[in-house]
Amino acid sequence: MATEAKSDGSEPVTVRLATRHDMQHVFDMIQELADYEGVPRGPQLSVQDLIEDGFESSPAWFFGLVAESGGALVGHALCNRAYSSWTRRAFYVEDLYVRPSARRRGVGLCLLRELCRMAVAENVHRVDWHVLEDNAPALGFYARLGARDLRVCEGRAAMRLDRAYIEQLARGQL
Amino acid sequence: MADQNVDVQIRNAKREDMAAIAEMIQELADFEQMPNGPKMSVEDLRRDGFDKEPPLFQCKVAEMSQPCPQPVVGYALYFPTYSTWEGSSMMLEDLYVRNSQRRKGVGKKLFKAVAKEAFTNGCSRLDFHVLDWNPARKFYESKGAVNLTSKEQWCYYRLGGEALTALSLDEAEE
Fold first, then answer.
1. Are A95 and A80 within 8 A, CB to CB?
2. Which B positions 123-142 lie with beta carbon below 8 A of chain A?
3. Omega of the bond prior to A40 within 30 degrees of 0, cis?
4. What's the domain of life for this entry (chain B) (predicted)?
5. Which of A2, A61, B17, B149 has CB 3.0 to 4.6 Å from B82, enough for a Cys bridge?
6. Could you give the domains of chain A?
7. Letter string b/e over residues B28-45, b meaning 16 or more CB atoms within 10 A of that residue's CB
8. In chain B, what residues touch A116 (CB-CB under 8 Å)?
9. What is the C-alpha separation between A141 and A113, in angstroms, rounded?
10. Which of A30, A33, A9, A5 shows the shortest CA–CA distance to A18?
């Protein structure tokens, strides 16, 4: 857990590992991020799904960090452990979100910094994520941290096989 | 994709396969023109894939049915991930077929085996990354894979090495 006092006099931000009791708030923020991304009907999970997959499944499908300020949950990062065949352990950040009322106060930075502390402690060598091209503020923020856009520097495209095609391929229909 | 099918079995990798896997990880990096990428030893792979509980990655190999000097001719390395929209998912980190065995349907068999694994585990997505110029993109697209970089403008970001360490140590305010 990390607490950062704010020099501008606003409430300090605390980042800690998410617990099952945070999942209602995480659920709400997943929807808020989908709304922001213009895909409000994207999220298909229930609070119960999040609790089962993150806290009742072994191994857990994900882990989360939440940021609190002034007694309220103001942001979260939902991540999973990944693996690189080049550099061993890796983290993947599926969602990084800060509520509008708490933006421009370094909350996103606090979340990523705590994740990087975990990464260093667990000997993780890379943290990967995706961001939409039109999310200009996020692109600028990530570049300032030293993140590389692998689409640009290595020409890597993200590909996805959705469930319907997974089924077809698994059943030998393709 | 297949000019002629060879007699190849797909099976779960064993720790004894890790020397061949390490060799093929290097071959894939050479193919991707990033020969200095891989930093792993055979021992790293054995520990992370077989001594850890849960294992940090899963792996399937393609093995020639007939005895030959180099029976393992391809591999797929993957691990579970999580979507905040659709729940359990899978990331295919590497899929590789040795040069001598290409165009014989080996890659298709490996890809299908991973799709089956994703299907059995209730995964809603099978995600992976491909270099822009890699002709394999056509193969994946023929199986229903969507290029998220071109279709949804997702940029793929990575924080690694010094940038990751710097952020973990950084106490400064934004």
1. no
2. 123-133, 137, 140, 142
3. no
4. Eukaryota
5. A61
6. 2-129 (3.40.630.30)
7. bbeebeeeebbebeeebb
8. 159, 164-165, 167-168
9. 13
10. A30
| In a domain? residue B153 | no
Smallest CA–CA separation between B118 and chain A, in Å? 7
Residue B173 DSSP class:
-
Would residue B51 count as lying in a domain?
Answer: yes
Joined tokens for residue A131? 């961001």
Top residue of B39, B158, B165 to mutate, by most chain A CBs within 10 Å, is: B158
Residue appearing with tokens 């585990």: B121
CATH number of the domain to which B59 belongs: 3.40.630.30
Rounded to two decimals, the pTM is: 0.90
Neighbours of B59 (CB within 10 A): 24
Is residue A151 within 8 A of residue B155, CB to CB? The reply is: yes
Contact A130 B143 (CB under 8 A): no
SS3 of chain A: CEEECCCCCCCCEEEEECCHHHHHHHHHHHHHHHHHCCCCCCCCCCHHHHHHHHHCCCCCCCEEEEEEECCEEEEEEEEEEEEECCCEEEEEEEEEEECHHHCCCCHHHHHHHHHHHHHHHCCCCEEEEEEECCCHHHHHHHHHHCCEEHHHHCCEEEEEEEHHHHHHHHCCCC
